[in-house]
C-alpha cells in the first residue's frame, strides 16, 4: 500500500514490479517550529503511513516525504508560477539539501522501519531567461525545490550527490527494497 498521492512516487514504486494500491493520506505537510528538516520528513512519512494503515490493517504501508532546504530556509513546493520563479531565482548558484524519508509500516504487527536519505544538489548560476524557460516548459509546481531531476530540471544543476538517485525523485528505492526484504518481500523473488 502506498500512502501518497504523488504520481512520481507511484511511478517509482512500479519499478519494483510489485502489486500495490494507492491511498492518499490527507496529512498536512507542515514543518513544526524548530524542527530540523530531516526530522520533519521522517515524522511526515510516518504520519502518512499511519493514516493509511487504519484502513488497511493487514498491509505493508509505505509513507514518504521530502523536504528541501537551502541556507536554513525550507523551500517547500512552489504551487504557483510567481513562487516558482522566485524559488528558482533563490536556488541559482546554491547548494540545496533534499531530505527524503521513507517509512514502511507493517499494519498487522505495528513494526516500523524508517530512513532519511540525503541528496545534495548544486544548482548552477541561472539566467532569468533560463528560469523563465524552465518554468514554461516543465510542470514542477508540486515538487520540493521546484524542479525535477528526472526531466528538464537536470539542465539546471552542476552536480547531484547522494547514495540513491531515486531519493531525489521522491522515493528512495534502495532503502525501501531493504525494508521490504526485512518484511519477507523481495522484488527479485
Topology:
Blueprint lengths: L1 E2 L3 H8 L22 H17 L6 E11 L2 E2 L6 H11 L3 E12 L5 E12 L4 H10 L19 E6 L2 H5 L3 H10 L7
Parallel strand pairs: 1-2
Antiparallel strand pairs: 2-3, 2-4, 4-5, 5-6
Helix pairs in contact: 3-4
What does this structure look like?
The chain has one domain (about 1-180): Maf protein. Helix content is about 30%, strand content about 25%. The chain contains 6 helices and 6 strands, in the order βααββαββαβαα. Strands 1, 2, 3, 4, 5 and 6 form a 6-stranded mixed β-sheet that branches. A hairpin with a 2-residue loop joins strand 2 and strand 3. The longest helix is centred in the first third of the chain and has 17 residues, at about 35-55. The model has no long low-confidence stretch (mean pLDDT about 95).
Question: Can I get a quick summary?
Answer:
By secondary structure, this protein is an alpha+beta fold. It has helices at residues 7-14, 37-53, 81-91, 128-137, 165-169, 173-182, and strands at 2-3, 60-70, 73-74, 95-106, 112-123, 157-162.
